[in-house]
Specification:
The complex is a heterodimer of chains A (160) and B (130). Chain A has 160 residues and is mostly helical. In chain A, 78% of the residues lie in helices and 0% in strands. Chain A is elongated, with a radius of gyration of 29 Å. By secondary structure, chain B is mainly α. In chain B, helix 2 packs across helix 4, helix 3 packs across helix 5 and helix 4 runs antiparallel to helix 5. Classes of the chains: A mainly alpha (160), B mainly alpha (130). At the A-B interface, helix 3, helix 4, helix 5 and helix 6 of A face helix 2, helix 3, helix 4 and helix 5 of B.
């Protein structure tokens, strides 16, 4: 009789302890009650500052893998055969397209970085200033990239 | 006298876990390398443009010369450091599954070290003519 009472108490204790939040073994995600989500990208009207913020991240992501091309070039420079292979790639239309994109990506990310450094000083955050900076970032990156490529193609055309 | 120690709960005092004192490390290093990257990227672009169209022997000789090699080495080290922190932020923003996140964070470190070291090796090989 006493043993039975003890078992009942134990069963009740075990049932109770399972109700404690810390005994819930489900993930935090599963335990979280349904709450309204904060509005995300699809809610907002696209704006230039927002697009340039996204472009900054995408170009940074692209530059990350572009470093493979730079490493390839530096290693290839040690041997004539290796360098010929790199030059074949760089001269092909797909190679030129990738290198053109890489050039723009690096310059856009650099100008975007300068914009962020200006913001870090507390300047350029006003409504008109930030719009102007975003436009300058985009126009500047395209203009510099195009000018650089025209210069390089003219220079290489002249040397051949 | 009634300083901020009273704000902490007894549990917090027992655990002794305050701030790790390194919260701004990545923030600061990302800006430090960003500032360094501006002149180094401009220099690297100028170096690359002047080398385009030259033959391999000339490219190897110029890239291996001390001043150019040092600029390129600084560029590689500064950018790969910047790359690693930047990609870590992207991974932490978008990958919420714990094991996938840890795997990608490790892969990020492996990739940036490998590509950075490959580029450094390429430059040093040209400089020392091995």
């Amino acid at each position: 009789m006493r043993a039975l009472a003890g078992d009942t108490a134990r069963a009740k204790f075990e049932a109770d302890i399972r109700k404690l939040p810390m005994a819930d073994t489900r993930s935090l995600e599963a335990r979280r009650p349904e709450r309204p989500l904060s509005p995300h990208l699809q809610i907002y009207r696209p704006m230039l500052t927002m697009m340039m913020s996204i472009a900054h991240r995408i170009t940074g992501f692209g530059n990350y893998f572009g470093m493979l091309l730079l490493a390839w070039w530096l290693i290839a420079a040690a041997s004539p055969n290796g360098y010929a292979r790199f030059e074949w790639f760089a001269g092909s239309w797909i190679g030129r397209l990738i290198l053109f994109g890489y050039t723009w990506s690096v310059i856009h990310h650099m100008l975007g970085g300068i914009r962020h450094l200006i913001w870090d000083t507390g300047r350029g955050l006003g409504p008109s200033e930030r719009e102007w900076l975003a436009a300058a970032n985009l126009i500047g990156s395209i203009a510099i990239t195009v000018v650089l490529w025209i210069f390089v193609l003219l220079m290489m055309g002249g040397s051949q | 006298m009634s300083g901020p120690q009273h704000i902490r709960t007894p549990l917090a005092r027992v655990l002794g876990r305050g701030a790790a004192k390194s919260g701004t490390e990545h923030f600061w290093r990302q800006r430090l390398t960003a500032v360094a990257n501006i002149p180094l990227t401009i220099a690297a672009i100028i170096i690359i443009i002047t080398l385009l169209g030259r033959n391999q022997a000339a490219v190897a000789q110029i890239l291996g010369s001390p001043a150019i090699a040092i600029i390129m080495l600084l560029f590689i080290i500064s950018t790969t450091t910047h790359m690693r922190i930047g990609m870590q932020v992207i991974i932490e923003d978008y990958v919420h599954d714990e094991s996938a996140k840890l795997t990608l964070l490790m892969a990020n470190t492996f990739f940036t070290f490998a590509v950075g070291l490959a580029a450094v090796f390429g430059i040093l090989k040209l400089s020392f003519g091995l």
